[in-house]
Amino acid sequence: MSKPWYRNKYVIVFVVLAVWLTFFDQNNFVYQYRLAKQIDELKSEKVFYEEEIQKLKAQREALSNDEEMLEKYAREEFLMKKPEEDLFLLKEKE
Question: Count of domains in the chain?
Fold first, then answer.
């Protein structure tokens, strides 16, 4: 008569090893899952920032080649004005 499965030493070793790797090891499966999730988030952030860099490069190129665009940017972003002009700032209600 053969032994039941829970008395087999290989099954016991496998179960103990699986439990150890799942919960107690330094690089357990839960930790690996969290790291993989974090890597996916960082990759999506990387794509976002690469797109932003491309937009800024295009904007920089436009500003360096077009005087009107440079003037418009300076007026909008830095509130620059000509000496004879008046500047009115309108704030939106939040």
Answer: 1
CA distances from 73 to 51, 60, 65, 82 (A): 21, 11, 13, 14
Q: Which domain holds residue 34?
A: 5-78
Q: What is the model's pTM?
A: 0.57
Q: What are 4-29's pLDDT values in tens digits?
A: 867 788 888 999 988 888 888 788 88
How many CA atoms within 13 Å lie on the side-chain side of 93? 0
**Which amino acid type is present at position 75?**
R
H or E stretch including 53? Answer: helix 29-65
Cβ contact 85:92 at 8 Å = no
